[in-house]
Amino acid sequence: MQVTVHIPTILRPLTENQKRLTITGFSVLEVIEHMEERYPGIKEKLITGGKAHHFINIYVNDDDIRFTDGLSTSLSDGDSLTILPAVAGGAEPALLHT
Amino acid sequence: MEVKKIMLTIHTKLVEAMITQAHKDHPIETCGIIAGPQGCNLPLRLIPMRNAARSAVFFKFDPNQQLQVWRDMEARDEEPIVIYHSHTDTQAYPSRTDVKFAAELRAHYVIIPTNPIYGDEIRSFRICDGMVTEERVRMLDSYKSEWELAMVA
Q1: From B61, B87, B104, residue closest to A88, measured CB to CB
Q2: What is the CATH code for B7-152?
Q3: Region B62-90 average pLDDT
């Protein structure tokens, strides 16, 4: 399956400043593994302990993968995979959210 | 040697809108962005965001709304110029959580205090690689006319 991956500004230094990549994979995890082969270092920015980082949002088309099958979410040809840094914060100490 | 000064230039109406929203949402933390044309560093289009955490001490943009807003910005050749939120019972200074989540290196991070004992003025910061730098806020009563039109569109 060939999908278009939308890369956020903060990760573009790892993708030679490309905003969009065309990557193959049958699941979100496979696409990330294939991105890692081409752009080493990107996987650790997206995944920790086998799950997506809580400060990263990953969407397949219009759906947040937290509400589908997470990194196992399957992909179809022509799907769009969007990565966005979660925008969050507040007065609470960070330790409560690690 | 020239030292580049960092500063947020912003229309007074946008500041008033952020403060009004923050007090309306109190005691929940308010949040939102002000978008502007790519590379112009001028905030124009204020977009209140839903705080998915519904908390007095934490905010998180609703992920579905964020996707739509970010797509709209891309279609309009915009970027987030200001990312704002309120602190409901602490000073208007970035917390550890704020610093940890700050991912937009070019954005101005604005904090609005909603407890009067911490003042009533917004403060603006740049947050880069865990470093917090406060910047001056310069409020204007008008931008160039075409930008003013964009703000009310």
Answers
A1: B61
A2: 3.40.140.10
A3: 96
Q: Give the model's pLDDT for residue B74.
A: 93
Task: Convert the pLDDT of each residue in A9-56 to its tens digit.
Answer: 999 999 999 999 999 999 999 999 999 999 999 999 999 988 999 899
Tell how strand A47-48 and strand A2-6 pair up: unpaired
* Nearest residue to B104 via CA among A3, A80, A84: A84
Residue type present at position B45: R
Q: Which of A8, A86, A95 sits opposite B101 (nearest CB)?
A: A86
Q: What is the ipTM of this complex?
A: 0.89
Q: Does A8 touch chain B (CB under 8 A)?
A: yes
Per-residue pLDDT, A94: 45
Q: Is A17 in CB contact (< 8 Å) with chain B?
A: no
Say whether residue A2 is in contact with chain B using an 8 A CB cutoff. no
The CATH number assigned to the domain holding A12 equals 3.10.20.30
Domain that holds residue A77: 2-97
HSE at residue B55, side-chain half, CA atoms within 13 A, is 13
Q: Which pairing describes strands A2-6 and A80-85: parallel, antiparallel, or unpaired?
A: parallel
From chain B, pick out residues whose CB is under 8 angstroms from the CB of A87: 31, 33, 49, 60-61, 66, 83, 101, 103-104
Q: Is the pLDDT confidence value at B151 over 90?
A: no
